[in-house]
Design a protein that fits this description.
Layout lengths: L1 H12 L6 H8 L6 H25 L5 H20 L4 H20 L14 H15 L4 H10 L5 H27 L5 H25 L2 H23 L1
Helix pairs in contact: 1-9, 2-3, 3-8, 3-9, 4-6, 4-8, 5-7, 5-10, 6-8, 7-8
């Protein structure tokens, strides 16, 4: 499991993601309470993107003036989503459908498909994605990033940096909401091993982004991974 988490963190952090969707998919293969699965995935998200945000900000890829409207509404709504009581089967079906839509969006090539995302809509978009992220236990970057790419919101590294900070704040808010609703029964040993694995993987991935990112290739690889995960979950829970 630690090796899988290391690989996931390496790949996902290269596009500014934390890997929460794939952590959920891997953890669903093991006998764990789904409340613990969501909480563990969010903690791993925080570890990966926390370090990424620091490096992106250090290299001045974060545009705070444009990013703040995105996260202003996402934080409280991610918290509310994390507090929402949801059945296990409904949770995994909702996650699978969300990931399927995200994968389809990411496969679209920005050179041939463009949508317009007005600046005044940033708060609404951030809030909607934040709520969904809190419910399913991920940071939401996997939904936000395709929209930013398709709307030509910024350069690939700026979008990766924006996705990272979006995931960080949503994961923190969602984790708080889930902890207040379900409590925490995670194994300390498992938590330490997996967070160390994703930290190391995340450091490799984000440095790859900063120095030799091929944005189109990485985005398509990520889309394929997400598509496989979503189809597997649909096959299991429908």
């Amino acid at each position: 499991m630690a090796l899988l988490f290391f690989i996931i963190a390496s790949v996902y952090s290269s596009v500014g993601f934390g890997g929460g969707s794939s952590y959920l998919a891997v953890l669903s293969l093991f006998p764990m309470a789904f409340e613990d699965i969501r909480m563990l995935a969010l903690i791993c998200n925080i570890v990966v993107v926390g370090a990424s945000v620091f490096l992106f900000n250090k290299h001045k890829y974060l545009d705070w003036n444009r990013t703040l409207p995105l996260i202003a509404m996402s934080i409280p709504l991610a918290f509310l989503g994390g507090r929402l009581l949801i059945e296990e089967r409904v949770f995994f079906i909702l996650l699978a459908i969300s990931l399927l839509l995200a994968a389809a969006t990411m496969i679209l090539d920005r050179r041939t498909s463009t949508i317009k995302m007005p600046q005044y809509g940033n708060a609404a978009i951030g809030g909607s994605i934040g709520f969904l992220s809190g419910v399913v236990g991920i940071g939401g970057g996997i939904f936000l990033s395709p929209l930013l790419h398709l709307s030509r919101w910024g350069k690939p590294k700026t979008i990766a940096a924006t996705s990272a900070i979006f995931i960080l704040v949503n994961s923190l808010a969602g984790l708080l909401g889930q902890w207040m609703t379900y409590g925490c029964n995670l194994s300390i040993n498992k938590l330490l091993i997996l967070t160390l694995a994703v930290f190391l993987g995340g450091q490799i991935g984000v440095r790859w982004t900063l120095h030799q990112l091929n944005p189109i290739t990485i985005r398509r690889i990520t889309a394929i991974v997400v598509l496989i995960v979503s189809l597997r979950l649909l096959f299991k829970y429908l």
